[in-house]
């Protein structure tokens, strides 16, 4: 049948922003559009409800990556035989690159003298290597270059990074074996010696150390730029051309589970660094600057670590679509010690599936043209550039680390995020939302390497940046619960006093269960009560220290008051009520100590509950 002139949308009215807005306003039922439908990132970037051709901000694309990214596996054991076996297994089963942490300062890892044994049998001319040497970069570089020379391959066959990052090491550990100036001079000399190895980078500006300390996307990118500029200047001061210096620098950024902002961050990184190189007189288009991704340590959880698999998948997707040159997905058991075989396999396969089955590597810059991602990228570039200029005005990366400018900036950013985490506005699945306090411990994890004891005297010291995790405060309460379980045989408990029929209290009882168990306080859910004597007896029999009353606002006018009085008389240390009823004052007089509701400071409420119990912290 001929379909000449067929127009699928021909019988429909043209969609307009006004028509869409009218439908949304109707659905909101009088709630303010700007408050409900618009958001804001921690960098102050507006998040619109709908991005269209009219409000999108699409700018020249800039440099982008095409083709598959390197599947990189991290290794931080201090056992050379273990590292060797794990690297070989990873490479045999789909990885194309590996990263090795070396012992340095107070950081555990592989000793420099064990590097050769750890890489025995590894085809360094076929797999990309990434060293993480910390302040031990000089000895590590010498050992690695000696190994490459002994392997006897053409220098152009090797691809990797020596990982020189004295500023990142100083920021993270608070110390260097030499002064910063000396470390930069030594690093520049190593970079100058790499002419036989055109595909080996000297410097790796690892900005993930700022992400771990609480940085926003713009702050992480701005420190990446400032660090890169410091390394460029160090090499140019040593006599290298700007173009040669640029070839010896690569970067690492953290990838977290915020997919859309994550895509924009990696796209913005290339665009911003191209702008820096242009200021140095370097043609960025002629270079392929590597921007690697490592999934965020900040987002990982100790409790319910299986959810880390989902977080790692989302982060890998964002980094891959955003144009990362290589991605390292941290295994889901990373925070528990040295990862087991199963966790490492899952981390590898996340990347392999995304590349080979989801087809993410087919198009160049897959996010190009998407109104929201383009807008995020452009606005993030503006935020980052303004902050980068402030850092340069303060004297550059070295100066802001020494002065504490970075510390203050990140502390303020973390405080804002922490407040939202405490109120569960930023939900942490498996911890602050949908917690499972009876989860079984994860198996197959080895103990983490012990901290080094033979640490050389520091040449320069600053206050180290903190190591923050989104779940750290809630998991601290969960650890208090675990300790009480071991000591007393029971976790702290709260009796959920449901009023009336199941339908009357289920919604608020479910909310209360999640609220208290987010901090490790076990919720004992009842079947509902219509008789106060039965409620009082059930609470007494439960042995719980606390109770939370759950019902409808109408019930709180009558039976709720009686329930509060009865539970208080039965000896409850603290009585809570789910909701924000109009008769809150009357309920308080009847014995309710506190109200729990959406938007309440969950962390503060639960911390004070533990303080009432008087457990050992």
Descriptive key words:
single chain, 617 residues, alpha/beta, eight-stranded parallel β-barrel, five-stranded parallel beta sheet, 23 helices, 46% helix
**Largest beta sheet, briefly?**
8 strands, parallel, barrel
Mean pLDDT: 94
Beta content: 5-15%
Overall 3D form: globular
Number of helices: 23
The tally of strands reads 17
Backbone structural class? alpha/beta
Helix content: 40-55%
Model regions low in confidence, pLDDT < 50 over at least 5 residues: none
Main sheet: strand order? 3-4-5-6-8-9-10-11
Q: Radius of gyration, rounded?
A: 28 Å
Question: Terminal Cα separation, in Å?
Answer: 77 Å
What's this, in brief?
The protein has helices spanning 17-28, 33-37, 80-92, 115-118, 137-151, 166-173, 180-192, 208-212, 217-237, 242-247, 259-279, 307-322, 341-356, 371-393, 397-403, 405-422, 472-488, 502-517, 532-542, 553-556, 559-569, 584-590, 602-613; strands spanning 39-40, 46-47, 70-75, 97-101, 128-132, 160-164, 175-176, 200-206, 249-255, 291-295, 326-328, 460-461, 493-498, 522-525, 546-550, 574-578, 594-596.
């Amino acid at each position: 049948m001929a379909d000449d002139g067929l127009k699928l949308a021909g019988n429909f009215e043209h969609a307009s922003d006004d028509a869409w807005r009218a439908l949304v306003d109707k659905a909101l039922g009088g709630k303010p559009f700007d408050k409900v439908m618009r958001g804001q990132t921690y960098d102050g970037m507006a998040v619109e409800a709908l991005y269209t051709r009219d409000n999108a901000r699409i700018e020249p694309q800039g440099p982008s990556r095409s083709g598959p990214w390197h599947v990189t596996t991290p290794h931080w054991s201090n056992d050379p035989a273990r590292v060797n076996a794990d690297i070989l297994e990873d490479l045999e089963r789909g990885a194309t690159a590996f990263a090795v942490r070396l012992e340095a300062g107070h950081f555990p890892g592989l000793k420099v003298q064990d590097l050769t044994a750890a890489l025995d049998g590894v085809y360094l001319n076929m797999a990309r290597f990434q060293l993480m040497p910390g302040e031990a970069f000089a000895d590590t570089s010498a050992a690695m270059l000696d190994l490459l020379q002994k392997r006897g391959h053409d220098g152009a066959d090797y691809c990797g990074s020596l990982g020189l990052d004295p500023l990142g090491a100083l920021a993270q550990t608070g110390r260097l074996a030499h002064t910063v100036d000396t470390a930069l001079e030594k690093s520049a000399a190593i970079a100058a010696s790499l002419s036989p190895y055109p595909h080996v980078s000297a410097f790796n500006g690892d900005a993930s150390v700022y992400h771990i300390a609480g940085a926003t996307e713009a702050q992480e990118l701005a420190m990446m730029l400032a660090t890169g500029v410091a390394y460029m200047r160090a090499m140019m001061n040593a006599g290298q051309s700007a173009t040669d210096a640029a070839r010896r620098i690569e970067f690492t950024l953290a990838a977290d589970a915020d997919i859309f902002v994550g895509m924009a961050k990696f796209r913005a990184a290339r665009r911003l660094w191209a702008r820096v190189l242009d200021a140095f007189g370097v043609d960025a288009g002629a270079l392929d600057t590597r921007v690697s991704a490592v999934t965020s340590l900040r987002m990982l959880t100790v409790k319910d670590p299986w959810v880390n698999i989902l977080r790692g998948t989302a982060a890998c997707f964002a980094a891959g679509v955003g144009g990362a040159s290589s991605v390292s997905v941290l295994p889901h058991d990373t925070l528990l010690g040295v990862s087991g075989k199963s966790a490492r396999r899952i981390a590898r396969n996340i990347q392999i599936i995304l590349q080979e089955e989801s087809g993410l590597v087919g198009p160049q810059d897959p996010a190009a043209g998407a109104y929201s991602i383009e807008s995020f990228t452009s606005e993030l570039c503006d935020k980052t550039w303004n902050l980068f200029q402030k850092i340069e005005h303060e004297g550059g990366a070295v100066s802001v680390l020494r002065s504490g400018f970075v510390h203050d900036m990140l502390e303020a950013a973390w405080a804002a995020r922490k407040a939202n985490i405490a109120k569960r506005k930023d939900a942490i699945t498996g911890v602050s939302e949908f917690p499972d306090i009876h989860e079984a411990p994860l198996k197959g994890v080895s103990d983490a390497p012990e901290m080094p004891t033979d640490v050389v005297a520091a040449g320069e010291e600053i206050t180290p940046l903190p190591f923050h995790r989104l779940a750290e405060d809630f998991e601290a309460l969960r650890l208090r619960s675990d300790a009480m379980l071991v000591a007393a045989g029971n976790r702290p408990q709260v009796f959920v006093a449901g009023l009336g029929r199941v339908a009357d209290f289920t919604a608020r009882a479910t909310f209360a269960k999640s609220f208290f168990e987010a901090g490790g306080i076990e919720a004992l859910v009842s079947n509902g009560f219509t008789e106060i004597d039965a409620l009082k007896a059930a609470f007494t029999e439960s042995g719980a220290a606390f109770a939370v009353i759950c019902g409808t606002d109408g019930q709180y006018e009558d039976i709720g008051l009686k329930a509060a009085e009865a539970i208080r008389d039965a000896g409850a240390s603290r009585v809570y009520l789910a909701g924000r009823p109009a008769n809150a004052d009357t309920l308080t007089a009847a014995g309710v100590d506190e109200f729990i509701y959406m938007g309440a400071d969950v962390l503060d409420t639960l911390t004070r509950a533990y303080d009432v119990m008087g457990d050992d912290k």
